[in-house]
Amino acid sequence: MDLVGLLLELKPLTADPEANFDRVVELLQRHQGLAEYEVARFYVSRSWLEPVARRLKSVDPRERLQAVRLIPLLFARASAAGQLRHRVKDPDARVAAAARAAVRRLGLADVSPPDTRADPPRFPSPTAVGGWNPTGWNFGLYPSMRAPVKRKPATTGPLPELKTRADVAKLVGVKVPELDALMRPGSEAGSGYVEFDVPKRTGGVRRLCAPRAKLKAVQRAILENILAHLPTHPAVHGFVAGRSTVTNATPHVGSTVVVRVDLEDFFPTVHYRRVKGLFEAHGYGDEVSSVLAGLTTWRPRLPDGTVAWPGVLPQGAPTSPAIANLVCRRMDARLTALAKKAGAKYTRYADDLSFSFQKPPERMGRFLWWVNAILQQEGFAENGAKRRVMRQGGRQRVTGLTVNQQVSIPREERRRFKAILANCRQHGVESQARGRPDFAQWLQGYAAYVRMVHPELGERWQREVKELLAR
Hints:
Elements: H1 3-13, H2 21-30, H3 37-45, H4 49-56, H5 61-74, H6 77-84, H7 93-106, H8 165-172, H9 176-182, E1 193-199, E2 205-211, H10 213-225, H11 245-249, E3 257-262, H12 266-269, H13 272-281, H14 286-296, H15 320-327, H16 329-341, E4 344-349, E5 352-357, H17 364-377, E6 388-391, E7 397-398, E8 401-402, H18 411-427, H19 430-433, H20 439-453, H21 455-470
């Protein structure tokens, strides 16, 4: 088939990329030898950015594999590099292997921090391990490259001694046969989880997965007896006792420039193998680590009944924030060191990373490149659409609080709440609820939040809310 015939066959298929995905892949693979192949690729790629992006974010590893195999056929090397770099750490081994094969096949020469476990190559090349090339994206994937340093893991208290599944069952208060039932995949009746939608502040809905009562009790036992005794990095302020959004924002007060970076799919990025490795790193054997990782991760069941593997951290589990913080410990240490070298301060609240500079950096783009590269090496991806660079002349916000001169709730938010209280006094609390059954709890919660940031104002508003609800 010549170029004209290929384009004529591709034209009707591009009208519905989702339905014709496999057929387009087949046609492009078969005609790569055409001298005018670049024309066909450009013709198709214009309408295929969104379908490929959707598949790359799919829960189904088969769809991600389809997208990875299509990327080298469809996109120029620069675009392909940007999409493949995040997939070389894909939780699914087949997807990750396909992404690394595509990187080699394209001969990508994008600069990346080297995999420091390997010595610098004597003869640099795009595939030389240890060089400033895409092999650095593989950092952390091959433990055999260098023997790990054996050291006693730090703890803030004694960890329980666990050697078998029976020991884990005793620790969490269930019988041994019940462990497998608690680790069932999916969210149907009989599984340990339930799925539900919650609205996003920016519109749309977010799909959450939360453990049922029995599994939740088991996870709380793991949290209290094991995870609570493992120290987080000092830069972490989310889900850590004694720290809050206020302590997270305080280091950035009065800065010339504040940069906010958001991590994409924070909890789902931490998968079963990473969780198992965390427990193994703190002295537990394969059997115990497997059970603990199985009890704290969730495997979704796809519409056709296939179980997605490996499991990931569910967003509604009590153990997920603590595990994510511990898995990020090396990333936090590297970003803290990077910030110190650049004359900046670094804090993290869950998936929200903040950097602040007392004087503008000479090379902001280079600094952000290093941040992005470290995130990739540590198995995370930045949500580029949410990056913010806030300068002193405008409002600087960190975890919802302004930090231009002091840590403060934005003025318009305080005015809005003050108006709500005034309307409640004049027309009654029900007039402001607008059908929300939890409005009374929201009033109490927001007043408590204000008290955490502005103690005197919050205390006054708490008294006022109490009086309004007592009417």
